[in-house]
Amino acid sequence: MKDLKLSTEQKAAYDRDGYLVVKSFLSAEEVGMLYNIATDDDVLKDKAFDFNDQTGKRTKLTLWFTPGDDAYGLLTRSEAMVNAVQDLLGEGQVCHFHSKLMQKEPKVGGAWEWHQDYGYWYKNGFLFPDALISVMLALTEATKQNGCLQVLKGSHKIGRLEHSFAGEQQGADMDFVNVALERFELVHCELEPGDLLFFHPNTLHMSEANLSDKPRWSMISAYNLAYNVPFREKNTSCITPVQTVTNDAVAKSGAKGLSADRDFLSKENEITLNVK
């Protein structure tokens, strides 16, 4: 694991562009271990649910809140990750809101419509979008062919757009998105396994369906500063400061997968499916 010490230039780029790519955060051995855990873990499979896009294609995800002592929990609690989040969010106690394993299988993995993460999290009752951040870790290659993330560079400065249902997902108001597509540069965030992508909750982003013959797996962790207390979200991980671990904890974890007693999200309890 790379000891992330973000430069002044990197922090300025995040503030300007609404996203930041960090290459080779994890070694090939570390990311290979995490991917193997994911593909072999019966708990992850049992706790997964589908989010259908507008065409009915499905993307599987498994989401949990409190980070534990498994390999994924240790990753999200690592000093490198937490310190980088602190650098980008600024003053406040860093808390882990949730992590999710995104599984876009070949040919069947669905799209994610144009949206902002705060389009979802606004419905959870968070007041301050600048106190939140998403961090994507590529577990496999992410390419144009298998549906890598696309962002509109600088679009976080628009502020929150109205969102409504697009399939089972939350989609941003397309009248605004279409104008934004004319104003902002569209960037395909192609990633290698082990790369990180940080992005702001108001950054407009989407991904196409995976029509390739290769899977696209990633883990996305959301962090929040403790002062940003939501009024609808009942899980307290988002206001519980992270207990950090050393950067070698993942490698020393012995490829330990998630335990069944983690506080997983069930689809019927997803707030954004129930709050208009």
UniProtKB/TrEMBL annotation:
The keyword Metal-binding applies. The keyword Transcription regulation does not apply. Signal peptide: none annotated. Pfam families: PhyH. Residues 96-227 form the Fe2OG dioxygenase domain. GO terms for molecular function: 2-oxoglutarate-dependent dioxygenase activity; iron ion binding. This is Ectoine hydroxylase-related dioxygenase (Phytanoyl-CoA dioxygenase family). Keywords: Dioxygenase, Iron, Metal-binding, Oxidoreductase. InterPro entries: Oxoglu/Fe-dep_dioxygenase_dom (IPR005123), Phytyl_CoA_dOase-like (IPR008775). Belongs to the iron/ascorbate-dependent oxidoreductase family.
